[in-house]
Design a protein that fits this description.
Helix content is about 20%, strand content about 35%. The protein has 4 helices and 10 strands, in the order E-E-E-E-H-E-H-E-E-E-H-E-E-H. It has a 6-stranded mixed sheet. The protein is globular and about 45 Å long. The N and C termini lie far apart (about 35 Å).
Length: about 160
């Protein structure tokens, strides 16, 4: 079941609410808390393309509302625009648990740039050290290089 809030598309799947498009002044995220099941809300953010200051304000309000209502928020496939906001503004992470997120990589062999999905549990040791997990290029098989500063990019994750 998909619905549109502003320019953002929300789709409820069997185990998550999927957000696609920009998060901006028309998104109205606080209503997402009504979709929590057993005091748990899973958000798939892989399709988020942009978040502006008004969207960020609503995002932070939604996270704060979840904490007040004792709703656990689980974030899956967190898109790079959301990661950047969580790194700049502590309240943008709230009490949410990040299960997986996209990170920028570059292949020196073929020049391929890719947003690679990283699972926090599978890469816990490297992420705790604020080092980029090793990734192989799907195009040429060469090792890829992390295309940002790992200490900064991974700072949204708990140590």
């Amino acid at each position: 079941m998909a619905e549109t809030r502003g320019r953002t598309i929300l789709e409820t799947t069997a185990d998550a609410v999927v957000l696609r498009g920009p998060i901006d002044e028309g998104t109205a995220l606080t209503g997402l808390l009504e979709r929590a099941r057993d005091r748990r809300l899973v958000l798939d953010l892989g399709g988020v393309t942009f978040i502006n200051s008004l969207g960020l304000r609503d995002w932070i309000r939604m996270l704060a509302g979840a904490q007040r209502a004792a709703i656990a928020i689980e974030l899956r496939r967190v898109a790079e625009p959301i990661v950047h906001q969580m790194n700049m503004i502590l309240a943008a992470r709230g009490g949410a648990r990040v299960v997986s997120f996209f990170a920028p990589y570059l292949c020196g062999g073929c020049g391929r740039e890719d947003a690679v999905l990283l699972e926090t549990a599978a890469h816990a040791a490297a992420l705790a050290r604020r080092t980029a997990p090793r990734v192989t290029c799907t195009e040429c098989g060469d090792p890829m290089e992390f295309n940002d500063f790992p200490e900064r990019y991974f700072s949204f994750l708990p140590v």
